[in-house]
Amino acid sequence: MQITKSENQYSQSWRWLVGCLLVLSLLLIGCEPLAPYEPTPVAVIITNTPTATVPPTSTPTPRPATATPSPTPTVEALPTQTQEPCLAEGGQWLDFTDNLSEVANENLRYRVYLPPCYFQTQKRYPLVILLHGLSYREQQWDELGIDEALDDGILRGRVAPMIIVNPYMGTIGQVNAFPPAPSYETVITEELLPEVQRNFCIWQDRDYRAIGGISRGGFWAYTIAMRNPDLFGIVGGHSAYFPGNLNEVPAEFNPLEIATNTSYMLDADLRMYMDNGAADSSGPSQQIMSTRLSERGIPHTYQVHAAGEHDNDYWAAHVAEYLLFYGDTWPKNADELPSCAEPSP
User: Phi then psi for 317, rounded to 5 degrees?
Assistant: First the structure.
């Protein structure tokens, strides 16, 4: 059969078109990732409700008479201090670099963030003790931008004004030593906390006292809070690591075991928070903790973010969220805080 010129041109055009489509498809295949990225959705487990919050007056903390400030001189000083309005938009850091711990027999320095106008307001502020990760120092939270997040949140009325304490973990915080042996728990509960409450105007009620930490610091925060719910009403674990080996951490001090086997946790009324990125190495242990708490109906919040590993980039991205959690039920205006001239309510 004889092929006409027009048919031949049509055939050549068709072959050219098919060839172009084949090349284009190969290019598209070459640009496709070897493994398609499927982001893990944000998972939030919230079993607590606002109605479960115990009013502050229901759990007052006893205070020694010597800790009560003298009302007369303080009240007389108030008018001259409050007549000058405070225009500061940011808080300030105070460094306590010489702090020999009798428990640890080492210098356990610490830093304190005071909210804007702390000295002028003469108010009692809620307290948050935030612990650093294992390979970091007390400056870690500052490096994550917690002071900038606090200044901005307080100025906008979104974050409750609070006092932040960042202690150095030292050598004692790196080892699994527990009472009655010298322990980092004892450093926090019997040395640091009383000293801070002596030196600063703190709202001395467990519902206005929180402790949290990153990684290893998150472990200490949870074991301390779960064993001392009379001291701390709020606890946060940010990529906290909970050892499952009882030879590593005995059951009495192991947060996973405390969550499972202690009867008092059912009535401890701890406001608890945990979070990690989907690729965080501490995620599995926090998932176990959340599961055990859920099985017993113990209120807590556990949040998994799609992006994030066990590093400063992740924690810095969520530091503002941590502050919202800690101060969730606290007054957002310093004027609503109790007076430092009176004993803590």
Answer: -70, -20
CA-nearest of 145, 167, 169, 144 to 96 is 167
Cα 278 to Cα 197: distance, rounded to the nearest angstrom: 38
Domain 43-336 carries which CATH code? 3.40.50.1820
Residue 113, beta-bridge partner list: 93, 164
* pTM of the predicted model as reported, rounded to 2 decimal places: 0.78
Q: What is the pLDDT of residues 245-265, one digit of tens each?
A: 898 999 999 999 999 999 999
Locate tokens 């310093």: which residue?
Answer: 334
Q: Within the chain, how many helices (H) and strands (E) appear?
A: 11, 11
Of the chain, the end-to-end C-alpha distance in Å amounts to 106
Query: Which DSSP letter does residue 270 get?
Result: -
Both tokens assigned to 135: 């390979």
* H-only helix segments in 86-238: 118-121, 140-143, 146-156, 184-186, 193-199, 216-227
Separation CA 225–CA 212 (nearest Å): 9
Domain ranges of the chain: 43-336
Which residue type occupies 344? Answer: S
CA distance 48 to 225: 17
Cβ(300)–Cβ(274) under 8 Å? yes
User: Residue 107: phi, psi to the nearest 5?
Assistant: -80, 110
Tens digit of each residue's pLDDT (9 = 90 or more) over 205-222: 999 999 999 999 999 999
pLDDT band at 45 (very low <50, low <70, confident <90, very high): low
| DSSP, res 138 | T
Measured between alpha carbons, how far is 288 from 73 in angstroms, rounded to an integer? Answer: 53
Rounded to whole angstroms, how far apart are CA atoms 273 and 237? 6
**Cα 56 from Cα 74, distance rounded (Å):** 25
DSSP-based three-state secondary structure for 277: strand
